[in-house]
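To whoever is on call:

I kicked off a structure prediction for a single chain this morning and the downstream step that reads the tokens threw a length-mismatch warning. I double-checked the sequence; it's 475 residues and nothing unusual in it as far as I can see. Pasting both halves so you can look.
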Amino acid sequence: MNTTKDPYQLDPSMIREPPSGLIDSFKYLGPGFILSASIVGSGELIATTIVGAKAGFVLLWFIIFSCIVKVAVQLEFGKHAISSGETTMASLNSLPGPRLGKANWSIWSWLVLMLIKTVQLGGIIGGVVLGAEQLFPWLGTANLIQTESMTIPVRYLTTLLIGLSVSVLVYRGYYLLLEKASLIMIGLFTVMTLVSLIMLQTTEMAVTGAELGTGLTPSIPSEAALLLVAMGAFGITGVGGDEIMAYNYWLIEKGYAAYTGPRDDSPEWTRRAKGWIRVMYWDAILAMVCYTLMTSMFYLLGAAILHRNAMVPQNDELISTLGTMYTQTLGPGARVGFVLGAVVVLYSTMFAALAAWTRLFSDAFSQIGMFDFRNSVSRRRAIGFLAWVFPVSWTFLFLFFKKPGLLVIIGGVITVVILLIVVYAALYFRYRRLDERLKPSRIYDVTLWISALAILVVAGLSGSKVITELIGWAR
């Protein structure tokens, strides 16, 4: 938090004038890059490369589209948080429709979906474990306990310790320190990926202009399984539904809503609101540029190296297969650097996700009536408790399913469904709750509708393919 007071309380003493220019705005950026820390591991490193490995170059356009098209919905959520000071779940609780107890249907639906989406983080923690085993091979072969009647691999303890280490960091509030360290490592990992892609062009596996043209030409694969993987990648490349929801908490904790102040009829409030919303636009758009470039690089490496060699990252070979993208261009010595980078990126994803999930779930339970999220003491207790619960559940999910890549893709499909709730809420905020003084341009509204319609189409395709697959399995 950037203030000594609780930013969830709109105290007039916390009001601050917005920066006047882009350069001055840079010091207030950050919420979008916190999302980047949670996006790069699951969406970019795992899901994107799996799609590239399976599809080749033909879905490059779709992956880039998935990064860009959802930002308008994110901006609308952020605008509502700044102008109202409401948390995400408090905002959802204002939506029309049936209620169960104190909570709106959207909150109950979100809770059910997010409990299923937990498998995605099981995949992420699995990626960290597999990376650790690449660095220290004995971790994957040794047994903690081995008797005639029982064998407990060291992997069980490794997974649990990794999960609990994230719990300690979130519980103790070491977020800002790790956020900065993670962003530095993500930056270094991005440079390594860029160098690998450049070196690729000096080998016989260089990406040709024709392949790049094919990748940027919109086309839809006919194979149901491939399309389902692409839909899952759509859910988690760029900002997913849960990241859009989490964005509001980072905006509030950064101080945007508190700096704007309680809404009133004065022109001063209007000026401040527009100013801090403008800062939020820069924050979200610059973060989008960064993770879109990273996504494109991962996809091209996956298509150029893994697809051509018929190598699809899966199961225990997930990290070692992904490492091939770097060793093919930078040499065998690059594997250690890749594994280290992958572990840091996936760990930062898990950490950022835990920080967001503890806030989202605490707020959801608050709307149900279990406690008061706006009370700082109650909020810290709830976040601290959930900081221990979630990593333990992620640990058991990975150890039970043992397929981190599949778990991430399943989480992506669930995220597409969550995006439907997000789209409905964003349109409701825009046309039913937005202060008329903050009414955006026509171009903004067109962009918002394009974003909403794209998400609806992808959700429809995902649903039809899931049903088709289930019917096939039933037969």
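Update from on-call: the warning came from a stale cache, not from the record. Cleared it. Sanity check on the structure: The domain at 12-474 is CATH 1.20.1740.10 (Amino acid/polyamine transporter I).
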